[in-house]
Amino acid sequence: MPRVSIVIPTRNRAALLARAVSSAQQAGSDLEVIVVDDASADETAKLCASLPAIKYVRLSSNQGLSAARNAGIAASLSDLTAFLDDDDLRLPLMLDEQVRQLDANPAAAFCYGRCLIADARRQLPTGEVYPNPCIQGDVFWTLLEHNFVPMPTVVARKSALVQHGLFDTQLNAVEDWDMWLRLSERNPVTAVDAPVAIYRRADSESGQMSQDSAGIFRSKLQVQARALQLPRARAASRSKRRLMRRRLLARAYSTMVHEATNAISDGNSQAAREKIQQAFGFRPFRTLASSHSWLLLPQR
Amino acid sequence: MCYEGLHHTMKIALCKSYFAGPVSGADETLITYAIQLRRAGHDAHVVLLYKYSESDRYYQRLRRSGVPIEYVIERSLVFMLLRGLRNCVSGIVLLLCLIPRTSGHLRRIWQILIDLSTRLHYRDCKTHFGHANYDLLHVFTPDTGTTLIIRTGHELGIPVLYHEMGTPQYLPPLHRYYERLKTVLPLCTEVAALSPRLARQWLNCFPFLNSVSVLPLITEDFELVQLAPSLRPTNEIIFGYAARIETGKGPLVLVDALAKLQEQGQPSLIRVAGTGPELSEVKRRLRELGLSDAWEFAGTYKETLGCTVFMRSLDVFVLPSFAEGTSNSVIEAMAHGLPIVASDVGGLRDLLPPEAGILVPAGDSAKLAEAMQRLASDPELRARMGKAARQRYLDLFSPNAVLPLLVKTYSRVLGATILNGPAPESANGAHPWEICENGKHSRDTFAAYAPTDFQQAFDHVGASIRVSPEIVLADNNGGG
Asked: Fewer CB within 10 Å, N or C, chain A?
C-alpha cells in the first residue's frame, strides 16, 4: 500500500496535465497518483490511458473541483493524501520530507510547505515564494485572517479529511480554505519551510479560476463567516471575531486597489474603474478617501 | 583576537538612520555585513537612529541570525506631527504636484523639515553611543541621520568609518544629502567606497580627503534549489533584469534593445524583477512596439530563495543603468554563473573584466542589442563568461574574500595592530581590491577608462539626471 496518494483533479487541460502527473510521480518515493477527470470533453481520457502508473477516475458529469477531490480521496489507498491542480507542479522528492514531518508530529492534521509562484505561460518561477514564514502548531486564528496555505503543498491525513466532512461541494472557490479552517480548529498543523511545489499564477489568458479577485474575496467572506460560527470561534469575544472580518475586508480592498493600479499602468481605464468600484464595495469610506476615488465618478 | 591598546574583542556598531526597505541595497549590505561578522565571531551590533518595525523583513533576518539590533529614538514626536500634517494635506500636495517642478520643491521642503527634526535628537544620540562603549562606528550611506551619527561619534572620540554605497552620479533628490555629507566627512577616521574606480571617483569629488579605501559588498553564496522543467521554447533566450523600474536604471533602453533583437529574428524573453515609477511608461512603450509577449513582469523577489529561483531561470543578466555603484543584482547574477551585459558606468568596470561580461555605453540601445545578440547566438560564450563571472564573484564578493579585508579595515581604523598571529588573510591571499594607505591599488590594473558623456546619454532618453562636474573632469584625466 503506498504511503501517499496525490489527487489531481482535471478538466479540459490535457496539455498541462501530463507535466503535472510527471512532477507528481517524481515528488516522492512511495506514492500513487490519482487523476480525477471531471467529465473533460478534450483528449484527457486518451492521455490518461497512455500515462503509466496512474489511477484514473472519471466523473460522469461536471461536478466541480470539490467533488473531484472528494472522489480522489475516496479512491485512494493511502492514509495520507496530497493535492495538486493540473496546472501546478510538485518539486522532486519534497513529498518525502513532508511525510517525515507528519510522522514526527502525529497530532498534526496536515503538513504544508512553501510554494514558488510561476508565470502563467512558461511556468517559470518569478522569484515570489509564498508563504513567508511557514507558521506551525495552532494556526486557527491566523488562518481565519487569510489563507496562507497553498493548495498544491498540502499533505493531509485522510482520516482527518473524512472526519471533518471532506471538501464542501457547494463552494466553487476557496473550498480549500474552508477545509483547512475546519481541520485547524481542533488540530495542530505542521510545515516544511522549503519550496515543495510550483503554483501557476493566473493572468488574463490563462483560463484559471483565480482571476476574479472580487468574486474570490466575496467567497472568502462567506467562508470566514461560516468559520466564525465554529465552536472555537464562537467562544472568542465578539471584538476578536469582528477584527478578523475587518482584516479580511482590508485585504480585499488592498488587492482591488493594487489591481486598479496595474490596470492604469496597462492603459486599461475601464478595468481600473471596475476594480475601484469593487474596492468601494469592500471599504466604501476608505475608497472615497483614496487617491483613486476619482475613478468612481461617472464616465463621460 | 587581541589588539595592542585594546584588551577585548572589537565591538562594532553598523549604523544607519532606518531601514529603507522593502528592498534596499544599502540595507541589504548592512545586514549581510552584520550577519557575516557575527558568524565569524565578532561583536557586531546594528544601530538604527529610528526604531524599526518588527514586521520589517531586515529586522526579522537580523533576529533570526542572532545579531543584536538597537535604536536611538523610539518615538519622534516632531516626526509624527510632521507626518500627520503631511497626511492631512496629502490631497492638496497631490494637486500641487501637478504644477511643474513643484514636486521637487515640496520634496526639498520635506527633507529640510526631517533634517531639522532629526537634529533635535542629538542629545539622545550622544547618550546612546556614550553608554554603549562601541569601539568603532561603521556608518552606511548618506541619509537623514548620517551627519548626526558621524558628529556624535566624533564628539565622543569613537572612530568612524563612513561607507559610501553609491556613485558620484547620483540622482538630483540626493544632492542635499551629499552636500551635508561633505561637512562631516573630515570628521571621519576613514571613508570607504565599494570598488577601486568608485574610490578614485569619490576622492576626486572630495579633494579634502587624503585617501578613500575600498570595502566591497558581501554577497552570500546561494544554495542550489530543485526546480521543475518549464514550458519555455527551446530556442528562446531569456534575459533577466532586476532593478527598480525608474529612468536611471535604463528600462526603456532595454525595451528599445529588445525591439532591435526581435528585428534580427532572435526569439527572446525579458524577465523583469522589480517595480517603480516608470512601470506605466515601460508598459506603454511595449504596447506601442508590440513587444508585450516578449516581456514578463515577474514581480519582486524579497529573499535569497526568491533571488536564486529567479536567476536560475535566466540565460543572461542585463542591466543598462545610467548610474551604478557596484550593483547588488549584478553580483547576485555573477554568483549564479550568469554572463552579464551592463552599462559602463560607476564601478561596474571593476566587477566585469571582458571575460566575464560585456560593457556597453549607457543609453546606447543599439550596442546593447548587439551585445545581447552576441550572447544569444553563442552558447559556448555564455557558458565561458558565466563561469568567469562566478569565479569573479568568489574572488571579490564572497564572505571568505571580503571578511578578512573588513576586519583589517576595522583594525586600521582603530589604529591597532593585531598581536595574535599574522593578520587575517583569505585562503587566496589579499583581496584583489585591497588598497594601501595612499589610495593606490595593491593589485589589479585596469585599462584606461574611456570617459563617457553621461549627460548626452541622459538627454537622449529625456532623463534629467545630474552629473557631477568633478567626476567628468576626473574621468577625462584618466583616473588615479
From this structure: C
Judge: B309–A195 Cβ closer than 8 Å, yes or no: yes
| pLDDT digits 0-9 by tens, B412-458 | 888 754 433 344 444 556 788 876 544 444 334 332 333 333 344 44
Task: Report the run of H or E that residue B242 belongs to, with start and end.
Answer: strand B237-242
User: Model confidence over B259-271: pLDDT tens digits?
Assistant: 999 999 888 999 9
Grid coordinates in use for B294? 516578449
For A11-32, give one letter per residue: b (16+ CB within 10 A) or e: bbbbebbebbbbbbbbbbeebb
Nearest CA-CA distance, residue B61 and chain A, Å: 11
| Cross-chain residue pair A118–B230, CB shorter than 8 Å | yes
Tell me: pLDDT of B322 over 70.
yes
B376-425, pLDDT tens digit by residue? 999 999 999 999 999 999 999 999 999 999 988 898 888 754 433 344 44
Q: Which residue has the cell 540622482?
A: B171
Q: Give CA–CA dist A71/A10, Å, rounded.
A: 12
Convert the pLDDT of each residue in A65-96 to its tens digit.
Answer: 999 999 999 999 999 999 999 999 999 999 99
CB B168 within 8 A of CB B174: no
- Of all residues in chain B, the percent with pLDDT exceeding 90 is 39
Which stretches of chain B sit within 8 Å of chain A by CB?
A: 90, 94, 225-232, 238, 269, 271, 273, 279-280, 283-284, 287, 296, 298-303, 305-307, 309-310, 313
For residue A292, the chain B residue with the least C-alpha distance is B91
Cis amide linkage into residue B22, ω under 30° from 0: yes
Measure the CA–CA gap between B188 and A24, rounded to whole angstroms: 59
B42-80 pLDDT per residue, tens? 899 999 988 888 878 888 889 888 999 999 987 767 667
Best mutation target among A23, A26, A129, A196 (most B Cβ atoms within 10 Å) is A129
* B309·A267 Cβ contact <8 A: no
pLDDT tens per residue, range B179-188: 888 888 889 9
Per-residue pLDDT for B106 more than 70?
Answer: yes
Between A17 and B234, where is the model more confident?
A: A17
Contacts of B303 in chain A (CB under 8 A): 129, 132
β-pairing, A125-130 vs A110-118, is antiparallel
Distance from CA of A126 to the nearest CA of B (A): 5
Taking each continuous run of H as one helix and of E as one strand, the counts in chain B are 19, 13
Please judge whether B283 and A127 are an interchain contact, meaning their C-beta atoms are less than 8 angstroms apart.
no
Q: What is the DSSP letter of B433?
A: T
Nearest CA in chain B to A127: B306
Q: Find the DSSP H helices in A14-137.
A: 14-25, 44-50, 65-75, 94-104
Q: What is the pTM of this model?
A: 0.82
Q: Which residues contact A45 (CB under 8 A, 6 or more apart)?
A: A37, A56, A58
Which residues of A make CB contacts under 8 Å with B?
19, 23, 89-94, 114, 116-119, 121-129, 132, 195, 198, 264-267, 291
Contact A127 B287 (CB under 8 A): no
